[in-house]
From TrEMBL:
The UniProt record lists the keyword Cell membrane: yes
Protein name, per record: ABC transporter permease
SUPFAM superfamilies, per the entry: MetI-like (SSF161098)
Any one annotated GO CC term: plasma membrane
InterPro entries attached to this UniProt entry: BPD_transp_1_N, MetI-like, MetI-like_sf
Residue span, ABC transmembrane type-1 domain: 94-312
CDD domains according to UniProt: TM_PBP2
Biological source species: Roseibium aggregatum
Length: 324
């Protein structure tokens, strides 16, 4: 177990270093940082002094090493657009993005798993066919279109839910904020969570259905039924347990995707998270924010995948036998 975790950790460090190299390349090859930080009236001597102060005249390996060390300390420089440290900007917005992503993942699991189990055990029922039709809609429609439809129905027509913003939030600690403790915050979270989690929900539902259909035809399930075990025990203790093994992997990957690709949903609902700030950074060529977003997203992906690998090792006995 320890050797498996160490190997996964070393692989994660290599991935982060590669992403850091790509992020560092933004500073070197996407415009000149000095030109973006000063105006036209700045003299050549002042530009050279600023370049020397920023360390841009040092060799590239030295600059990359300094960049990695600062990134490990969550120091990503100063935003060209906001003239504030990037770490402070992200500290204000990362709670909103993480809250939206985790609630979307919770919605996808809470709805997708029961639907997949029912569709797998009752494949010929009308409700199962309805679930499959809903899953096709969730996979086919783009995210921004789903968000616009929800806004038109629940905000414009019915006027039940707010169409933009995060609602009232509560501050916890020195920098974390949450809308889960206020009524307006919960209402503002409903439509963005459904919009972002609908595709993941349909994916999980179809995956569990396919796995259930495959597992219930295996020999050990037939043997369990031959022993006279009730269907409830056969389905939920034996079949579902083996069905959830690949689902854990997919769920971990999709959680990372929710965090990384929440940009469109945040833009549609004007959600004050990292994604919408990243789009503004792209429009204004704010390289520190762009590189920091790339690094943080990769870091979250790596951490989530590391946890999924450990859970997969603990749940699947075949991996433990192979390692032994």
């Amino acid at each position: 177990m320890l050797g498996f975790a160490v190997r996964r950790l070393m692989q994660a460090i290599v991935v982060l270093l590669v992403v850091a190299l790509l992020s560092f390349s933004l500073f070197r090859f996407v415009g000149d940082p000095v030109n973006m930080m000063v105006g036209i009236e700045t003299s050549i001597q002042e530009r050279e002094a600023l370049r020397e102060r920023l360390g841009l005249n040092d060799p590239i390996p030295v600059q990359f090493g300094r960049f990695v060390v600062k990134a490990a300390q969550f120091d990503f420089g100063t935003s060209y657009q906001f003239h504030q440290p990037v770490s402070e900007l992200f500290a204000k917005r990362i709670p909103a993005t993480l809250e939206l992503s985790f609630m979307s993942a919770l919605f996808a699991l809470a709805v997708g798993v029961p639907m997949g189990i029912y569709a797998g055990l009752n494949r010929e029922s009308r409700l199962s066919k309805l679930f499959l039709s809903v899953s096709l809609v969730g996979i086919s429609l783009p995210t921004f279109f789903i968000g616009i439809l929800l806004i038109f129905l629940f905000s414009v027509t019915l006027q039940w839910l707010p169409s933009y913003g995060r609602g009232e939030v509560v501050k916890i600690g020195s920098w974390w904020t949450t809308g889960l403790l206020t009524w307006s915050g919960l209402k503002a979270l409903i439509m963005p969570s459904i919009t972002l989690g609908l595709y993941q929900m349909t994916l999980i539902m179809r995956l569990i259905r396919a796995e259930m259909l495959e597992v219930i035809r295996t020999d050990y399930i037939k043997f369990a039924r031959a022993r006279g075990l009730p269907d409830r025990i056969v389905h939920f203790r034996h079949a579902l347990k083996n069905t959830l093994v690949p689902v854990i992997t997919i769920t971990g990957l999709q959680l990372g995707a929710l965090i990384a690709f929440a940009t469109i949903t945040e833009t549609v609902f004007q959600w004050p998270g990292m994604g919408i700030m990243f789009l503004q950074a792209v429009q204004n060529v704010d390289i520190p924010i762009m590189s920091a977003y790339l690094l943080l997203t990769a870091f979250l992906f790596v951490v989530i995948n590391f946890i999924v690998d450990i859970l997969y090792f603990l749940i699947d006995p075949r991996l433990r036998v192979e390692r032994a």
